[in-house]
Amino acid sequence: MCTLLLLAVLAGVALAGAAGSDGGTTVTVTVSGSSPVPGSSASSPVHSGGGSGSSSPCYWQPLSTANSGPSTVPGTWYAEICPGFQPYLPTQVVFVPTSPASAGPVAVVSPSTVAEQAVRSISLPSPMIELNPSPDSITGLATWLWISPGIWHSYSATASVAGISATAWAVPSSVTWNMGDGNSVVCDGSGTAYQVNIPASVQNTSCSYTYETTSAGQPSPDGDPDDGAFTVTATIVWKVSWTSSVPGEGGTLPSLETSSSVPVRVVQVQSVDSSG
């Protein structure tokens, strides 16, 4: 029944690039774990914690072992199935011709299509938000913003289809901080952690924000109207590039994003005049 349903969809699904063959009628997809880019400046260990990205890699499922392709060329149709998207419905379909050895080379799956498969298999972490002052920010005083540096490195995945492999790299580029009061800050890196055991006068950060108003009257996490808080959202922008086993094939792909949010209570500290 699943095969019949997939075959019924073929007419409405555009083929992504040419079909390919490795000399037989099988297509395999293998996905590597996330890892830093070789030679990158990242010094943190590999970390592939939860976040966006496919936790179950896509795979190719044969639709028929005796199906004709374009121009009645013998071969097999394969559908790309991605768990977690739409079960039983292919995201794309390719045709792999059955070619005898004497027939010479046949067209292969587009390397860019394989790269897109690799991108969908990268598991990227969501930012772990850190602030100081904490737990409350103070009006008129700069709030330091940073995310856990352990996730600030590159992640990769490799996919192989019909003898063509492509590796996609996701590199953290910047963090956009939506501060919940209608303003936002864009920082080029993960930010600098505030050290509570070091005098503030000898510390600096390039990623901070100063609230001008309190969060009074904002929604409260615990339902107490006196504990209103702004929702602060940090969004990491990941630049994506890819390389291929095909000489000269590679480039960039649309950026990816991962986000997380925390409530931040902003208060005003009243000064006390003790001169009288």
Specify Rg, calculated over alpha carbons.
Answer: 26 Å
Summed over residues and divided by their number, the pLDDT gives a mean of 73
Major sheet: 6 strands, mixed
Distance between the termini: 87 Å
Q: How much helical structure, as a percent, in the residues?
A: under 10%
The secondary-structure element order is HEEEEHEEEEEEEEE
Number of structural units classed as domains? 1
- The amount of beta strand, in percent, is 25-35%
DSSP strand count: 13
Low-confidence stretches: 1-56, 101-107
- Principal-axis shape equals elongated
| Structural class by helix and strand composition | mainly beta
DSSP summary: helix tally: 2
List the helices and strands and how they pair.
Elements: H1 2-9, E1 59-62, E2 67-68, E3 74-81, E4 92-97, H2 111-120, E5 129-132, E6 136-138, E7 142-147, E8 155-161, E9 164-178, E10 184-187, E11 208-210, E12 230-244, E13 250-267
Parallel strand pairs: 6-13
Antiparallel strand pairs: 1-3, 2-3, 3-4, 5-7, 7-11, 8-9, 9-10, 9-12, 12-13
